Amino acid sequence: MYAKKIFLLLLAACLGGLPSASAKEAVVEGMGVDRAAAIQHAARCAVEEVVGTYIDAWTLVRESRLALDNIYTHSRGYVRKIKVLEEGATDAGYTVKALVDVNDAPDAGLMDKLTMLMLLNDPAFFVSVTRGGAEAAERDATAESVFNERLLELGFGNVQAEEDNPDFLVKGELSASSQEIFVPNAKRESTATGLFSGQASLDVTVIEKSSNHVVGTFSLRASDVAASAEGAEEKAGAKAVREAAERLEGLFKKVGAKVQVVRSTAWQGGDEDANG
């Protein structure tokens, strides 16, 4: 297995419900044979700096290295604005000092590319869902299978049945209870319906194992009805697990395997906007 350390703060940001319009500013220096080349270099330096806040050093597979090079090559496609603070000609060419606005919104192209790098590096996942409380906790194989199937649907191919040094650990704590449903009769007396109402709660934590960095946490509640107390609890628990599995899509966005080339645009003087 390739040694990998990936900080998926971008995915935690998705979970936290941050606005879609997001940006990171970086003050960088760029150098080139002329002003345009220096600005291009400054854009690349800014994108590299922002990428570095999301990805720790890890051993990349060849495809991931190519994808990362593609991100840097098309850096200007991920920059919304650049403000030149200082500039001037030198013996070696031209230099600029610039304030660069990099678009790192959860739904931005840059974030998709970084998620794709993780997919290319084929991280290993292990899902552990327990129920019964800390003292009598038992693994729930049915709940775990729902999570595993969802991860596979999202494009992750390395989902472990038993924990074997995974890159990511998805931990769930499931609890359920039930009560019989009564309704009043004509005499205003409570009459049993033969049905039970089940309530379930599920707390999920996603951890990047090598650093113990918590990628994200969330809690879900669900309820359902069945003809037995046990059946009501099982149905409510299954519903909570299904909803939690859907939430994984907010943490791990599915990205196509093909690297899309982002067209760069020509920038001109002063405040440079990525849209021209």
User: Structural class from helices and strands?
Assistant: alpha+beta
Radius of gyration: 25 Å
Question: What portion of the residues fall into strands of 2 or more residues?
Answer: 35-45%
Please report the number of helical segments: 6
The overall number of domains is 2
- What distance lies between the first and last C-alpha atoms, to the nearest angstrom? 44 Å
**Helix coverage percent:** 25-40%
H/E element sequence: HEHHEEHEEHEEEEHE
Query: Count the strands?
Result: 10
Mean pLDDT: 75
User: Which outline best applies?
Assistant: elongated
Strand count, sense and closure of the main sheet? 6 strands, mixed
Poorly predicted runs: 1-21, 254-270
Which features does this protein show?
276 residues, four-stranded antiparallel beta sheet, six-stranded mixed beta sheet, disordered N terminus, alpha+beta, Double Stranded RNA Binding Domain, 10 strands
Describe the structure.
Keywords: Signal. Residues 1-23 form the signal peptide. InterPro entries: FlgT_N_sf. The protein has six helices and ten strands; from the N terminus they run αβααββαββαββββαβ. With 276 residues, the chain is of the alpha+beta class. The protein has two domains: 9-120 and 256-273, no CATH class; 124-251, Double Stranded RNA Binding Domain (2-Layer Sandwich). The strands form two sheets. Strands 4, 5, 6, 7, 8 and 9 form a six-stranded mixed β-sheet that branches. The protein has a four-stranded antiparallel β-sheet with strand order 1-3-2-10. A hairpin with a 4-residue loop joins strand 8 (190-208) and strand 9. Helix 3 (62-73) packs antiparallel against helix 4 and helix 5 packs parallel to helix 6 (229-251). The longest helix is centred in the last third of the chain and has 23 residues, at 229-251. It is elongated. The two termini are 44 Å apart. The model is unreliable at 1-21 and 254-270 (pLDDT under 50).
